[in-house]
Every structure is written in C-alpha cells, then in structure tokens.
Automatic annotation (TrEMBL):
Gene3D superfamilies, sorted: Vaccinia Virus protein VP39 (3.40.50.150)
Alphabetical keyword list: Methyltransferase, S-adenosyl-L-methionine, Transferase
Record organism: Gomphosphaeria aponina SAG 52.96 = DSM 107014
Start and end residues of each stretch annotated as SAM motif I: 69-78
Superkingdom to which the source organism belongs: Bacteria
Protein name: Methyltransferase domain-containing protein
C-alpha cells in the first residue's frame, strides 16, 4: 500500500536532505547529543562524547548482544554502523531522507559492512517490515519527529521479536504533573520556535511516553532523564559554528540550514531553563510462548 507523505514528513525530509551533508562535513557522522558524564562536567571532545552516549545507552539498556537491529531515524548511519560493528549484527537503518539513506549505503560499503547493514527510506509510523523482525529497536533522537507518538511505539512493538528490547532517547519537555504545573505561555512559545526550526510536530513529557508505552503493552518499562549529561553538547556546537569556514559552509547550505544554525541557542536555553529534557525509555516485548 502506498503511503502518501504528510506535510511534516516532507518538511523533515527536506530539512535533512539539505543539512546532512554539512553536518557530516563539519561535525561528523553522529547526528545526536553527546554524553558528558552524569553531571555534564566531563571535558571530552564532541565526537567521543557522541560515541560515549551510544555506549552509555547500551549499558543502561543492559544490551550485551544483538543479532538483528533496526535503527529508527538513522541519519547517515552513525549509530547504525557502530552497532553493526560492535555486535557483528545485521542492522537496518530507516530515514525519511533519501539523501541520508544514500549516504549511509556509501558509508557502509566504505567500512566493509555492505553485507550486514541496509538503509531504507521508510516511515517509522508505517514500517515496511514483517511482525517480529528485530531483536532490538534503537531510536536515538527520532521520537521528537513523530507526529503520532502512540502509533510510533505501537510500530516499534510490532516489529520487535518477543523478548526483544526497545531503547529510545528523545527530546521531551519538562514534566507538567509536578510542582512546575502546566507549561506557561512563554514556554509554549519557546517550544513552538524549536518545532519550527527543527521540523518537529510536538514533544511530550517523559511521563507521557511511559504511559503510552504501558498502554501499548511494553513490559519492564524503565525511564531516565539525562538532561544534565547531554546539555553541554549545544554550547560545543555553537562554539564550533563560529569557525569562519563553518560559517561559510552554513551560508552555502540553504535557508533552512541557516535558520537552524542561527537558532542553536534555542536548545541550550531550553536546557538551562529546565524546559527541554533528554528522556530515555526502555521496554521489552513479552515472550510469546505460542510461537
């Protein structure tokens, strides 16, 4: 059945088609936060911090091996290739961006992983895979792009084998069921600016993700907030963007990329004021004893 892309899907595709080449050229293959120690105080280079985030997520999720992984929202394959090498696993990366998928395929061949890693242009809300296809669903900063969070977690559940694991890290907003109360008008305005710049439909709180996961049937659900650990990433990126060559490259990458670069401070300020949170979610699919 053909899936007609929505407006937000087209915006996401065009955003990453336009900006991924620049990001790789300037900042490397990993298009996600870095990990700077639990308190965010470790002084390490940005690329190592990004690799550390992958390792810390695997440790937190208690993943020591895997044979068949799906990387949902794979970018140009930073995590995809890393996981394939680490576990000697078959890994499938999906993205809305044909540019990213094509680049991921080239990078897989360059690393000699063409027989283990595949990249597909696919929608995470309607994945072109059979039920129970994977033993690990890996979603590193893609949930924020999903226009239907419930459908997203349902699809992740569907394609996962019984006993398999979901590890998800995503942008959230602060909890609204604690002393902070509902989001203020100013916070809502701040979020809308982030949505506009980074092509996000909306974000939700980590508590809301947990409830959705429970409703979808996930078991052994765990969550955590690593906002302090990752927040320094944005200031590192902002500092690097002031390099003259980087600024010239940004100017040549198109208007949407320029807007994104000029708006990096939205995220760092979001973390500083406690509005933006970096949420983790882990869950298992029940073993199906009838299989």
């Amino acid at each position: 059945m053909n899936h007609q892309p929505s407006t937000i899907e087209k915006e996401i595709q065009e955003f990453y088609d336009a900006s991924s080449g620049l990001w790789e050229q300037v900042w490397g293959e990993h298009m996600h936060h870095g990990y700077y120690g639990r308190g965010g105080t470790d002084k390490i280079n940005r690329r190592q911090a990004q690799i550390d985030l992958i390792e810390e997520l695997l440790n937190w999720g208690k993943i020591t091996s895997s044979k068949n992984i799906i990387d949902v929202g794979c970018g140009i394959g930073g995590s995809t290739l890393y996981l394939a090498e680490k576990f000697n696993a078959k890994v499938t990366g999906i993205t809305l961006s044909p540019v990213q998928a094509a680049r991921g395929k080239v990078r897989a061949e360059e690393k000699g992983l063409g027989d283990k890693v595949t990249f597909e242009v696919a929608n995470a809300l309607n994945m072109p895979f059979e039920d129970k296809s994977f033993d690990l669903v890996w979603s590193l900063e893609s949930g924020e792009h999903m226009p239907d969070k419930i459908k997203f977690l349902q699809e992740c559940y569907r394609v996962l084998q019984p006993g398999g694991t979901l590890i998800m890290a995503t942008w959230c907003h602060r909890s609204t069921n604690s002393w902070g109360g509902d989001l203020t008008a100013d916070e809502e305005k701040h979020l809308k600016e982030i949505y506009r710049v980074y092509c996000l439909p909306y974000v939700i709180s980590l508590a809301e993700y947990e409830q959705i996961a429970k409703d979808c049937g996930w078991q052994n659900i765990r969550s955590d907030d690593w906002s302090m650990a990752v927040a320094p990433f944005w200031n590192v990126v902002i500092d690097s963007a002031f390099d003259t060559k980087v600024m010239i490259d940004i100017l040549g990458a198109g208007w949407q990329t320029i807007v994104g670069a000029l708006s990096l401070g939205l995220m760092s300020w979001g973390y500083e004021r406690g509005l933006i949170r970096f949420g983790l979610l882990c869950g298992q699919k029940d073993c199906d004893w009838n299989d």
